[in-house]
Design a protein that fits this description.
binds zinc ion, three-stranded mixed β-sheet, 1 helix, mainly beta, Glucose Permease (Domain IIA), single chain, about 10% helix, eight-stranded antiparallel β-sheet
Amino acid sequence: MVVGDAIEWTAVLGIPLSATPGEGLLSVEQADGGRSRKIPYTVGHKQYKEQHLTVSPRTVDLSPEDQARYERERDHQAGVMATFTELPAGVALPSLRMRVPVPGRRSSSFGLRRVFNGQPRNPHSGMDIAAATGTPVVAPLAGRVIDVGDYFFNGGTVWLDHGQGLLSMYCHLSRMDVRVGDVLQAGDAFCQVGATGRVTGPHLHWGVMLNRTMVDPALFTPA
Ligand SMILES: [Zn+2]
């Protein structure tokens, strides 16, 4: 994602939690085919806390039917995550400043290493906000709806495309009042908090994806 203007711009990209700490090189290609530039960066080490959760056993040890369902949904979601539009029609240029989609306590944060019913699983890739079922969720930025579904782990889910490879996802919803193609402005209510999918109670799971990488939503919100 590129922010700024013709005089000065900044490229912002997501680095996955699974990245190996150390040196990396970013390659900047000129649109006119001119010389490319290499920009070095360093990925530091961070130790994330571990979190133990107890959930319904059928959401940890999957039956063959649930495993097949999960794999179908994973393939579908991979297509959604690959969405890249310069700027969806009706959507303003994305900003790095987002409003929090629901008021409430942030009950767990990005990067936590998670152990479900004693079994290690992928780290937490978003922000959990505790809120009652039925609490309206608002769009943190203008965006276009690119997916609405009910998934095994994520429950009721909506994905928004904000342009420039910046996507956001909302999970465990009880209600979804939008369809694919709908355009939302920042602050529009479009779904409601719930407890669907693999959860311990009602909350919003909010994910932010940049260049197909889940990044910490807290980076974009006021402290
Ligand atoms: Zn979550």
